[in-house]
Specification:
Elements lengths: L1 E3 H5 L7 E7 L2 H17 L3 E6 L5 H9 L9 E6 L6 H13 L4 E6 L4 H4 L2 H9 L1 E5 L4 H15 L2 E2 L1 H11 L3 H14 L5 E2 L1 H9 L6 H10 L2 H13 L4 H20 L14 H10 L8 H12 L7 H13 L8
Parallel strand pairs: 1-6, 2-5, 2-6, 3-4, 4-5, 7-8
Helix pairs in contact: 3-4, 7-9, 8-9, 9-10, 11-12, 11-13, 11-14, 11-16, 12-16, 13-14, 13-15, 13-16, 15-16
């Protein structure tokens, strides 16, 4: 079964079996994960998380699904990564689907291309479980999603305000949500937001944005990138949003290196293709090997799972994208 984001939100309470959610919209991913975790807490479902580094990790996942602690009747196993199970893993997946009706295997993956969606792995889950594409391709879909966020903040926007907000953030839903939160805080007595409110609130605070950071690192301008990064940190830009921006650029560059003819299919805007091609000519492919490790360290630091400072690691990631290294990665 295929569901979109809004349909999936309505089914988290009854979710069992195998689910895949895939896409490159961090707001949708986080909201849906939050909804699942809320239901698991309410139903006292035991939760375990696994991060995939190779195909053999799938064996641990299915071993977990076959065992429960003494204090739980149901289990939710949350799997993050972009590694599909091999033939043996696929066999274990089919066995799990056939014999385990009470637990939930929730697989969180980045955006998948058409060939990946036709793989045996996706076809098996789609036929016996649920596949959710975390995407909002059309303006009306993005507005529906953001309208829910606005309702939760107790505000409503004029139609021209919606158009301005979308253009201002170039369809970045997470950044748009942050702006809705900012305008709600700036005008606490105003529940009907017009374009003038957005303009007054956001223009003064948008000297630099995460999009400026993307452009600077792709161009390899380290001094400018560091300046923009410092501004974003000092202005209170969430570290998770900066991480999302950097990880998106790293992922696209690595994918484009492997598939140089598929820029548009990878989701790169037509007017940005030359920027990515220029970055690839400047960067050494060997540098790609350390990128995933740095991103994982940033994520762990943001979540408080390490003693490292997120700002220092983010500076390293910016330097790496510009073709430099501030220190040796661990």
């Amino acid at each position: 079964m295929k569901l979109d984001y809004l349909q999936a939100l309505k089914r988290t309470q009854e979710a069992r079996g195998a689910w895949i959610m895939h896409g490159q919209e961090p707001l949708l991913e986080q909201n849906l994960l939050d909804a699942f975790r809320k239901e698991w807490n309410a139903q006292e479902v035991e939760r375990q998380r696994y991060d995939l580094n190779n195909t053999s990790d799938w064996k641990q996942v299915f071993n977990a699904l076959d065992s429960l602690s003494l204090f739980s009747q149901h289990l939710a196993v949350e799997v993050h990564g972009n590694i599909k199970p091999d033939a043996n893993g696929l066999k274990l997946l089919k066995q799990y689907i056939q014999h385990n009706e009470h637990n939930l295997l929730l697989i969180v993956m980045p955006k998948q291309d058409a060939s990946s969606l036709k793989s045996s792995f996706f076809q098996t889950v789609e036929a016996n479980g649920v596949v959710v594409q975390l995407a909002a391709h059309y303006p009306k879909d993005r507005q529906r999603i953001l309208s829910i966020e606005a309702d939760q903040l107790g505000i409503q926007l004029d139609q021209d305000a919606w158009l301005w907000l979308e253009q201002h953030h170039e369809h970045n839903l997470l950044a748009a949500k942050n702006s809705l939160m900012r305008v709600a805080d700036t005008f606490p007595e105003q529940n009907h937001i017009q374009i003038e409110h957005l303009y007054e609130c956001l223009q003064d605070q948008s000297r630099y944005s995460s999009f400026d950071l993307s452009d600077a690192v792709l161009a390899g301008h380290y001094a400018q990138s560091a300046k923009i990064l410092n501004y974003l940190i000092e202005s209170g830009e969430p570290a998770s949003l900066i991480l999302w921006t950097l990880s998106k650029e790293m992922r696209l560059l690595m994918q484009l290196y492997e598939q140089p003819q598929n820029a548009l299919q990878l989701g790169i805007w037509k007017n940005k293709v030359a920027n990515y091609q220029q970055a690839l000519r400047r960067l050494k492919p060997q540098s790609f090997l350390v990128w995933p490790t740095v991103l994982l360290r940033i994520d762990a630091a943001i979540k408080g799972l390490s003693q490292e400072k997120p700002e220092h690691l983010i500076q390293q990631a910016v330097a790496l994208l510009c073709g430099y290294s501030l220190f040796e990665p661990a």
